[in-house]
Amino acid sequence: MNPVLVLGAGPAGLSAASELAGLGAPTLLVEKETYLGGNPKRWHYSLLAPDLRPAEEILGPLIERVEHHPQIELHVGSQVSSAEIAGNGYRISLRSKEGVQTREVAAVVLATGFDHFDSRRKFEYGYGHFPDVVDFKELEGMIHDDRVLRPSDGKAPGRIAWVLCVGSRDIQIGNPWCCRMGCVVSIKQAVEIRQKHPEIQAYIYYMDIRTYGLWEDLYWKSMQDYGVKFIRGRIGAISMAEGGRRLIATGEDTILSRPTEVPFDMIVLASGMEPGTGTKEASDLFHVPVGPEGFLTPKLSDMNTIDSGLPGIFLAGAATGPKAIPDAITEGMGAALRAFQYARG
Predict the structure, then answer these.
(1) Among 78, 102, 214, 251, which lies 20 to 30 A Cα-Cα from 188?
(2) What is the pTM (predicted TM-score) of this model?
(3) Does residue 215 sit in the same domain as residue 102?
(4) For residue 170, what are the domain limits?
């Protein structure tokens, strides 16, 4: 049996490769980065909602299994540069540091993940200009290292604000969709900081709070147990206060129907999810259609996000749209089972 190709080694790809290997299928796992774990590994995610378990507890065992399983052939820092139909499977060109090799695979799992929205595109927020305006993926690393400090002077902030839906639900920049994770991750971050540093005040600016399912409990606990404050409104601009020591968030409180100008020591932008750069490449290689948002389009998006509708091609994780890590891992398992069934004929 030819191996099953898994393209991408984030949570969905790791899950798919691990499941395939457990089924006894030879697996070719290809990751363009030099590390495994995708965005959670790149940005040092701290705790995962809703149970606030360390990310390492979830992804660590998957990475360990993938790195040492005899059925998995792992290629990091590598890319598939071409693909064509060969019988019931595919013939691919694999480009790695060892050179280019031609391989035949029995089926393909596309788990190309997502990219965080580049907050510099929302120039009114000053990201990249004001050092104390940070993206929440960067704050994840600070929380992970227990060094929540202002980048400008290395001092602990007294007041932190989160601005939700940066690059999400925004027609002007071309991303009308909800990222699904901005609300819950921001609330989780505020809770983590208040747990460790109760002297830091936490404020969250929101349009609507979307903590679906069991994550709703975290929303209420953040207010009742940790004193996180929620302000319904939009921030129109971020500027530097006179003297250059604090940031000013200018916007509107839509409940009180009045403009506001509030000083903060640090402002965190909850950047949305966009299709990963590898998603467009995978679409071109395997002729999987993409929707207007740029994510891969499954055959039945309202019933089955795993089957692409093309023979031997299966989809998993944020390649098809914004996903939480548990959802991505589950879809990786499902895609592995479908690929295994196809490969066995």
Answers:
(1) 251
(2) 0.93
(3) no
(4) 117-272
